[in-house]
Amino acid sequence: MNATLPVEVQPQDEFNQKLIENVHPSNWINPKPQGRYNLVVIGAGTAGLVSAAGGAILGARVALMERHLMGGDCLNYGCVPSKALIRAAHAAHAVVEAREFGIEAQVPKIRFTEVMKRLRRVRADISPHDSAERFRGLGVDIYLEEARFINSNTVEVAGERLEFKKAIIATGARAAAPPIPGLTEAGFLTNETVFALTDLPRRLIIIGAGPIGCELAQSFSRLGSKVSIITDSDALLPREDREAAAILTRQFERENIAMVLGAKIQRVELAAEGKTILFDRGHGAERISGDEILVAVGRTPNLEGLGLEAAGVLYDTKGITVNDHLRTSNPNIFAAGDVASRYQFTHAAEALGRIALQNALFFGRKRASNLVIPWCTYTDPEIAHVGLNEREAQKAGIDIETFTLSLEENDRAVVDGEANGFARVHANKSNGRILGATLVSRHAGESIGELVLAIQRKLEIADLGGVIHPYPTQAEIIKRVGDASMKSRLKPWIKKALVKLFQWRR
Q: Residue 160 phi/psi, 5° resolution?
């Protein structure tokens, strides 16, 4: 039967048409099942695509089902379009920064329509990687319809029943809408709709100060919106290192992004001045108005319509319940990605998809808990983190040493005018082994991998000092943190002894 597109993608221009023809073709004909599958995968986001492709390449008979757009959030509503928007915002801000380098430039004229057109174009250009045609070419049976379990080893999709030996659920998650009175009536944007904008909101209110909220707040501000960010937390990025969040706060202040922290939102109203949020910060009622409201306050798993009860798969409001091997309460069904993980990142979904595939097809004992998963918030400066922070180490009863170097001590950062940040590494005090790290720099996401590898390989912090970096680079600060740890071991009594030794050797 022909697949139909359940949700319209806006605007209907040539780029979105190209996107749709790749990730949910209008003329797609679902295959006819021929016998039992080794593996069925529900959901064609990152975790689903990785596991389906891997199974087919290894020779398994695989079916992949997607009710909406292949590529999932990352391609369509997340990583790809958001980074395209962030890049445009960087370009606009570079003109503003030019004066610092002795270059006089005019105030940039931002054509938001063209910004969004480029966003749609690059997303469409990337979409063949996640396309139905590509995965059919890999040997995967693609069903572009909603799938549901009808028993413990059978899925129904497009009027057909598919029996399976193993299954992986990778249906992902979507933006959560907070139960704020009047919000639905006033109308709001999420990451699923904000990239469909063609006109720049003159005033934008963002509810939520997590990574998505902060990234989009800075981007829209740099593109010309008057942005206000409102949150019930007492700081931006509450999961991050407090000093890192403070650097971003000061940057937002410099860029005139309004921050309303510690606010309890009472309701939303449509008023003469626009969409209005009424809130309380403990000293009486306040209000803030804008032309659009963007909600960025977390995610909710996509569980509806899957027939999990029929399959004997346990779940709760946080997602599908899995063990460390990503196996559900049905031993033949696994789950991976945002629908079953607290790490809701594309790179985490890819790693978890690989584990689910190995454990499903090869009786593997791969453990999700062995993964070392970094993350990065792509503000300017970027904030990247991996492993434990100080609070988590204290909670676990681990005695740590922390070494921090400011980017003001890094020659390349100073030359580039990008010294607004630091490198911080936490090590086990008893054996020097690296337990966690935070980088704050314009390119932190590009540099954190070295520290991920260090934790994976159980390296000591002093080992960082032995890694030779090209000079000058900002990543060289990681080596200098290792040097600082070595310098800390040079106790006064050792120094005195060495002084006497070298005097004797003269």
A: -110, 150
Query: Side chain identity at 479, as an amino acid letter?
Result: K
- Regarding beta strands 258-260 and 226-230, do their DSSP bridges make them parallel or antiparallel, or are they unpaired? parallel
The answer as to CATH 3.30.390.30 being correct for domain 381-488 is yes
* Contact yes or no for 182/54 (Cβ under 8 A): no
C-alpha to C-alpha distance for 293 and 70, rounded to whole angstroms: 28
The pair of three-digit structure tokens given for residue 412, joined into one six-digit string: 């390349």
333 HSE (CA, 13 A, CB side): 26
**What letter does residue 157 receive in the DSSP assignment?**
E
The Cα–Cα gap between 166 and 170 comes to: 13
- CATH class of the domain comprising 14-80+117-175+300-370: alpha beta
Do 22 and 124 touch, CB atoms closer than 8 A?
Answer: yes
Task: Give the N- to C-terminal CA distance of the chain in Å, as an integer.
Answer: 90
CATH 3.50.50.60 in the chain: give the residue spans: 14-80+117-175+300-370, 183-297
Report helix, strand or coil for 357: helix
**Count of C-beta atoms within a 10 Å radius of residue 495:** 10
Contact 163, 329 (CB under 8 A): no
The residue length of the chain stands at 506
For residue 253, the tally of other CB atoms under 10 A from its CB is 11
8 Å CB contact between 237 and 245: yes
Report how far residue 325's alpha carbon sits from residue 334's, in angstroms, rounded to the nearest whole number.
Answer: 8
Tokens standing for residue 203:
């005033």
The strand pairing partners of 156, in sequence order, are 148, 161
| Dist CA 307 CA 142 (whole Å) | 20
For residue 13, the 8-state DSSP code is: S
pLDDT means per 10 residues, the chain with 506 residues, are: 52 95 96 95 98 98 97 96 98 94 89 98 98 98 98 96 98 95 97 96 98 98 98 96 97 98 97 96 94 96 97 97 98 98 96 98 92 98 96 93 97 97 97 97 97 98 96 97 84 68 77
Tokens of 171: 């249906």
For the chain, helix, strand, coil in percent to 5 are: 40, 25, 40
Contacts of 368 (CB under 8 A, 6+ apart): 322, 324, 325, 326, 341, 352, 355
Cα angle vertex 222, ends 220, 223, to 5°?
60
Exposed, middle or buried: residue 115 (CB in 10 Å: 0-12, 13-18, 19+)? buried
With residue 124 as reference, give the H or E element that holds it.
Answer: helix 112-126
Burial of 179 (0-12, 13-18, 19+ CB in 10 A): exposed
Measured in whole angstroms, the distance separating CA 378 from the mean position of its chain's CA atoms is 9
- What is the CATH number assigned to the segment(s) 183-297? 3.50.50.60
Contact status, residue 451 vs residue 463, Cβ threshold 8 Å:
no
**DSSP result, 316-358:** ETTEE---TT-B-SSTTEEE-SGGG-S--SHHHHHHHHHHHHH
Q: Which residue has the tokens 């959560």?
A: 176
